[in-house]
Amino acid sequence: MAKLVVLITAQADSALDVATLWREAGAPGVTFIEGYGVRSLHQAAKSLEVPSGMLSMLDIMRHATTNSVVTLSLVNDAALASRMLELVEAELGDMHAPHKGIAFVLDVSEVVGL
User: Fold this and answer.
1) Does the domain at residues 2-108 carry the CATH identifier 3.40.50.2300?
2) What are phi and psi of 5, to 5 degrees?
3) Over the stretch 58-73, which tens digit does the pLDDT of each residue have?
């Protein structure tokens, strides 16, 4: 079964380092998605000084600062997925510590194109 390995962290430079480690370990590809926390979106909306009903989510996101990076990789090997989580902790340290982020693996039952 395919596995989706996910890392969400505010440490963008470390996310890039993790992605490099994942590729070196055998991940076929790695994708980054900019993330916005709810708090930063609320702050951005307040700073625009426009009634909230007049703003779209896209308007708010254009003025918000990206505060996290979502790093994704789909692999076809459970052992590789486990190794990728180990590499996250090797790069970022103890993921149970505050402000490190979160990393996890999800089972993917159907895939087209892997």
Assistant:
1) no
2) -100, 130
3) 666 665 566 789 999 9
**Encoded amino acid at 110, one letter:** E
Q: What is the 3-state secondary structure (H, E, C) of the chain?
A: CEEEEEEEECCHHHHHHHHHHHHHHCCCCCEEEEECCHHHHHHHHHHCCCCHHHCCHHHHHHHCCCCEEEEEEEECCHHHHHHHHHHHHHHHCCCCCCCCCEEEEEEECCCCCC
Tokens of 47: 């700073």
Cα distances (Å, whole numbers) of residue 54 to 12, 74, 80: 32, 38, 47
- Record the pTM: 0.79
